[in-house]
Amino acid sequence: MNADAIIIGAGACGLMCAVQAGYLGKKVILLERNEKPGAKILISGGGRCNYTNQFASAEQFISNNPHFIKSSFTQFTVDDTISFFETYGISGKEKTLGQLFPDDKNAKDVVEVFTSICADLGQEIRCNADVKDIEILDRGFKITYDKNGKNVILTAEKLVIATGGLPIAKMGATDFALRFARKNGLKIVETAPALVPLTITGKDEEWFAQLSGNSVLCEVSNDDISFEENILFTHWGLSGPAILQISSFWKRGEVVNINLLPNYNITQLLDEERKLNGKTLLSTLLNRFYTKKFTDALGKFLPVNKPVASLTKVEIDSIAQTIHQFKVKPAGDKGYDKAEVMRGGINTNEISSKTLECKKIPNLFFGGECLDVTGWLGGYNFQWAWSSGFVIAQNL
Ligand SMILES: Cc1cc2nc3c(=O)[nH]c(=O)nc-3n(C[C@H](O)[C@H](O)[C@H](O)COP(=O)(O)OP(=O)(O)OC[C@H]3O[C@@H](n4cnc5c(N)ncnc54)[C@H](O)[C@@H]3O)c2cc1C
C-alpha cells in the first residue's frame, strides 16, 4: 500500500481532506489531472474566492435529501472554516448577503494555504495525474492513472473520490465520479448545469441584446423560490447573481418572473407623483430607478412619454404588470462551459451522511460537488467542499 489513503482530485474538497488527514497523522497521496491544484478555487469569485457564507445551512442547498449535509455541517461549521483560514492569515470580509472573501488576500492565497500545509505535513500532491481506472480489490483499491502517456499504478486501503462536477472541462472537470458510480451500480440524480446564465432567442432576443451591460436590482422568482439581487443583460440573454440563483431551480420551458422594482409599488408611486406634479412623464419617474437606456427600452411596453396624470386605469394596470411581473421564457442555459456548479450527482442515499463513506463499497468516500448537493451562489458550495473534506478525513 502506497499511503493510508488516496484522494482523487486536488480541488477544494480533496485539498481540505488531505490537510485534515495530515493533522490526524494520516498519510495521503492526492492525484490531480491538472498541472496545478485548486484550479476552480483560483478562478472563484472573480479570483477573490468567496470561500464561505456566514449564513450557510442546509436550507441553501438543493438535494434529493435536504437533510444529508446537516451532519457534515455540524462536524465542520462555518465558524470552523473561518477559524481555519484565520489561522493561516486569511481573515474574512463580508461583501454582501453573508458572503465572505479574504480581506486583503485573494484566491491564490487560499490555494497556497493548502499547498503549504500539505508540504509541511508531508502530504504528496501529484499533478498531471489523470486517473483512468479504479479496481476494487478484496482489501483496498488499485488506482491507475496516466502520467505523461504512461500508466502508473497505486494501491491504497482507503480511497476518496473528490473529482468535482461537470462545469468547465477546460479547468479539468471530468465525469469520472459519475462514470465510476454508474459502473458500480450507484444511483445518480440527473445532472444539469446550475448557477448558469440563461439565453433568450427568437423575437425577444434583440430587446434583451440592446440592453447588454445594464444591471438592474430585481426580484427573480418561479413558483418555488425568489431571489432579490441584480440581473445583468447580455447580448445573448440574462446573467447576474439573481439569474444564476434562479437558474438552479429553472427547468426548460418554464417562465421566470422578474419584479423590476422590488420594494416599491409602481401604482402607489404613480399615484403620489400625480398628486405632486401630474405633468411628470412616466419616463422621468422611471429614470429615478433605472438607467436612461433601460427606461427607453421599457418604452416598447409602456407609454413612457405620457404625463402621469393622463395615464388611464388600464394603462396603470399594464404598467404595474410589466414592472412587477415581467415574464421571461429563456430558451436555454449557457451550459457547463459557463456554469458555476452542477445540479444533481451521485445520489446521497448511497452515502453515509455521518462519514461520507459509500454504503455499498466500504472504505470508499465521496465528497464535494460530485454528490447530489448543490449550493446557492454565495460561498455555499465551498463550505460544502470544506465540510465534506473534513468529515472524510476523520474516517480515513
Ligand atoms: C467560475 C466559477 C466560480 C466559482 N466561484 C465560487 C465561489 O466564489 N464560491 C463558492 O462557494 N463556489 C464557487 N464555485 C463553485 C466551486 O468552485 C465548486 O463547487 C468547488 O470547487 C467544488 O469542489 P470539489 O473539490 O468538489 O471540486 P473541484 O474543486 O472542481 O475539484 C475537483 C478536482 O478533481 C480533478 N479531477 C477531475 N477528474 C479527475 C481525474 N480523473 N483524475 C485526477 N483528477 C481529476 C479536477 O481537475 C479538479 O481539480 C465556482 C465555480 C466556478 C466554475
TrEMBL record:
Keywords: FAD, Flavoprotein. SUPFAM superfamilies: FAD/NAD(P)-binding domain, HI0933 insert domain-like. It holds the Pfam family HI0933_like_1st. InterPro entries: BaiN-like (IPR004792), BaiN-like_dom_sf (IPR023166), FAD/NAD-bd_sf (IPR036188), RsdA/BaiN/AoA(So)-like_dom (IPR055178), RsdA/BaiN/AoA(So)_Rossmann (IPR057661). Its cofactor is FAD. Residues 4-394 form the RsdA/BaiN/AoA(So)-like Rossmann fold-like domain. Residues 193-341 form the RsdA/BaiN/AoA(So)-like insert domain. PANTHER family: OS12G0638800 PROTEIN. This is NAD(P)/FAD-dependent oxidoreductase. The lineage of its organism: Bacteria, Pseudomonadati, Bacteroidota, Sphingobacteriia, Sphingobacteriales.
